[in-house]
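ping. complex inputs:
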Amino acid sequence: MHQLYEFVSGPLAWIAWTVFIVGSLTRVVVLVTSTIEKDPVVVNYFSLKHALRSMVIWSIPFFPRSSRLNPVMTVVSFTFHICVILVPLFALGHIVLWEEFFGISFWALPDRITDIMTLMVIFGLIFFIIRRFSLKEVKYVSSWSDYMLPLLILAPFVTGYAAFHGWFNPQLMLILHIFSGEVLLMAIPFTRLVHMVFAPFTRAYTASEFGAVRHAKDW
Amino acid sequence: MNYRTTEDIGLITGAKNLTAEKIRSAVHKVFSKEAGPRLKAYYNTCVRCGLCSQACHYFLSMDNDPSFSPVGKVKQTVWELLDPGKRITPDFIVNAAQIAYTECNLCRRCSMYCPFGIDTAYMITLVRRLCHLLGVTPQYIQDTAHSHASTMNQMWIKEDEWIDSLQWQEDEARDELPMLRIPIEKNGAEIFYSVIGPEPKFRSQLIYQAAVIMNVAQVDWTMPATPGWDNSDMAMYVGDYELMGRMKKIHFETALRLKCKKIVMGECGHAFRSVYDTGSRWLGWKEPPVPIIHAVQFYWDLLNEGKIRVGKKFEQPVTFHDPCNIVRGMGLHEKARDLVRAFCRDFVEMHPNREHNYCCCAGGGVINCGPPHKKTRVLGNKIKADQLRATGVPVVIAPCHNCHGGLEDILHHYKVDMQIKFLGDIIYECIDKTSVE
Ligand code: SF4
Ligand code: SF4
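pong. complex structure:
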């Protein structure tokens, strides 16, 4: 058990971070360079002003009409995305790791808040899964991987929650937590989770075309 | 697989000539070589959330049938074509062609409802491009593309017929305004006025009305006597970009030959998209080589510069339909409203409006695919009929030819008693013509 812990919290952690960072960067670099080479319109019509404007607007819940039409989805989705990013970054247990591995220290979320936010993530994922098979327009376009991805995200949050609260075998939970977290990290560049990396680019391009060329709003 | 195949001889006979090898190489050409990296970015980024569905009038009108949602249409076509393990059959191509040509207006409304701004219309145009390369295209729209190829206009109009139509309209209009001219081939005129093929063919009164407005405003304008007068573009919608390039080139070159400073085009949306955006880009221009403005912008300028004045107000209550290609395509919605408010006494908005307005379901070349597909586009736009009916007014103004065709069909089918007008109709009727009387 101890060896396993050593492995997941040592070498595998480094591997996971490397895969995540190098993988994501590579995807961005490939997207950008191949766009410059093959799709010059995207570059020629790019408008930073409109890109930033659109990103700000789409970050405000209930501002785009699309988000007003789906209030429940908007609330769940915003809460989920905020929590799913903040919890891993600022959970007290992780702050210690940041210091240990990278020598950076910053402010941590209080445990109680982390707890609630973790539950929000779990709730959000369950909501997404239910939505996926109960709304016919979503179900129609979903493949097995779309059902698996939420489970992939669910794993580190559930095990982390269990480990923190000392449920089952806390040590095993901790190992599973670290392991599933690493798998998730490595999956980001190679699955649809890449939307996290690509979203600013697709948004920026659409915003440029709508705003600078066609003088219309894109929200 | 699609369960609603309509019989289109263009699609059926086209598919007979397909071989596995032809399909493979065309798919490779379009999806690996021609398509930009944004295709892959869209494919990878789309989280299949379905939020774009609520944007599409087909989906909303067809009882939320998921196969009509934007992402549903992409799933049935693009995703399969990107799957290296998938064997693409001629039947698949027929189905993909039907979806791409007749079940999407390329209206781009869905981009505004996707959190990532994914451009479904772009992906659908790639499918059309593929079908064009494979020769599997709806017969009617292909016929208009053939007309473009051989006559440089959409309606098989010969050169002398074109000139005749202009002179005929000039003659007619001189009964009303004896000094009126339609200047043909005037070198160095400030404005080059271009129209779409159907104007001289079916709606020549629009040329008459435009001439009256030009003369009242005392604009220095001209129309060419040679091919290049037609700004419409079904080649763009068929996916035949080479032909689109030829047509746009002759259009620009004709304006340049006459040394005109500006191109003004009639009230057509798709032609504006082609001339301002798609076609001019294909020719490598970042901005069109001659400034181009749509009629709405032109009328607005005339009104604001005091060149035309309101003589009387249009009395009946009106509503305004925002055509996709000049609203999501050019942001002309406020200018159009300024004109409507200036010339009409009672203006009622339909909802949603401006960038969020529902498409007429004729655009994107859909109406040009002809009778075999009419049912789909009429049933696919019940929501627009409901939207129009809810305004309770007798007149809808739509500054776009395609919109007129599409709206006419749904008003008729859903028994909404409404008249459709161009802005030019209203302005012609209500401007103060004393400057030329
Ligand atoms: S018709 Fe318009 S809203 Fe529907 S899929 Fe096509 S572009 Fe999107
Ligand atoms: S809204 Fe965007 S991300 Fe969601 S299914 Fe539609 S295209 Fe994909």
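The beta strands of chain B are 191-194, 221-222, 262-265, 292-294, 318-320, 347-348, 395-397, 419-421.
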